[in-house]
Amino acid sequence: MNSLLARLSLGLALGLVLLFILQWWLVSGAMRNMSEAYVSSHLEHDIGNLLGAIFVDEQGQLALNPTRINGVFNMPFSGHYYLVVSADQQLRSRSLWDESMPLPTVHGKAMFGQGPAGQPLLILSHKYQKYGRELVIASAEDWSPMESDLAKFRVNYGLVSALALVAVLGLLAVLVRRSLRPLQQVREEVQQLEQGEVLRLSETVPSEIKPLVKEFNNLLDVMQERLQRSRTALGNLAHALKTPLTVLTRLADSDEMTQAPEARQQLAGQTEQMRQMMERQLKRARLAGGASPGWQFRPADELPDLVTVLGKVFSERNIRIETQIPPQLVAMVDREDMLELFGNLLENACKWARSRVRLTIVDGPGLVFRVEDDGPGCVPELREQLLRRGVRADESTAGHGLGLAIVQDIVDHYRGELSLSQSDALGGFAVNVRLPGSAVR
Fold first, then answer.
1. 205, 179, 175: which is closest to 190 by C-alpha?
2. Do 358 and 275 fall into the same domain?
3. DSSP string, 12-25
4. Among 277-291, 309-323, 420-434, whose mean pLDDT is lowest?
5. Looking at the predicted structure, is the pLDDT value of residue 394 above 70?
6. Is the residue at 180 inside a domain?
7. Distance, CA of 429 to CA of 363 (rounded, Å)
8. Close Cβ partners of 183 (under 8 Å, ≥ 6 residues apart)
9. How confident is the model at residue 45 (pLDDT cuts 50, 70, 90)?
10. Could you list the residue range(s) of the whole structural domain that residue 193 is in?
11. Disulfide-capable partner of 43 in 109, 139, 213, 405 (CB 3.0 to 4.6 Å)?
């Protein structure tokens, strides 16, 4: 169970259920004890009356004054009974009829026994000295009505407790949800962070999770700072390497090298290969890869400027670049990575196109697009070789070489898919790219 809300709710619910069961059991026991004490007080009163009603008749036998005895003791099986026992005599209430009742072995403490009709009795007895004789007076009352009332009380109290439990659980559910609302707010902000709508999490949170949010924000700052520093350093490195490569290129074109054409050709080839490898590796290292907080790429806003620049670059050949871009599409990717990706593909298409290049972005899940031209295209065997051999084939193939290699690197960084095909509409080369789960609308 990974949900904090579910854990808290289940724990509180189990605790409350156990608490309500315990209090129901304690209250029910307390009510039974109170009932026993109440009945025992009646029995004490009856025993006191019986003790006062005892006298010695003319024959020297113990007798009871009928005027001082409650009439309920004269009704057969009335549920109220008494028993007076001496050494040589026993007096019983008429309510016992021809039956008897058990006499407690411990006097002064109420106990339960079986009555003349099989009903449960609460019996209390005391030992006295009167008229020089030792007497035991026991009084009993039918416990069945009280037990029935107690059973009804337990049922009714149980129902009331159950309703109260449901109400308390509902109230606790509301309180728990309200208490965990800041966590829901953090969750929503994390989703906004993933979609690039915010750059940091709000630190207006409970003190228990505030250190976590602060550390998360610090981590975001460190990641952004490191990426920016890396890109700056790589840009400086690329700028620094351009000078020695330029010197080598001029050396290959110098008059001294004309006397050794074979060495000149080898130097020029190695210098160009170094330049391409350097450019590719630098661009590859500068890739951000994946969606990062606060990064958004809006193709409808960013790509028109790129298309305009490429149109000017290839203006002498009158290359027309057509675009189909959903206006509301937003990709959760790095802007620089996407400009590099689209720039290489469109530039490569313009190099090989006769007059038309088309960019089509699909309005669907993820970032899916297609770049095609009306150039000579590429045979299937070579397309498979480019994808299969990767870097070496890309770096050795004119036109499709370095640009396509960089495109492959970018797509791999975003765990996307790249496929090469023939354009059905324009007849030339076509590149299909899919970056899954990186776009929202």
1. 205
2. no
3. HHHHHHHHHHHHHH
4. 277-291
5. no
6. no
7. 22
8. 4, 209
9. very high
10. 185-214
11. 139
